[in-house]
Amino acid sequence: MVRRVLFVVGVCALVKYTSIQLILFMVPTVAVMMLLALVKPLESPSANKMETYNSAMILLMTYCLMCFTPFALDAMARYTMGYVMVALTVKNIVVNIYVVS
Question: Which domain holds residue 74?
Answer without folding.
Answer: 2-100
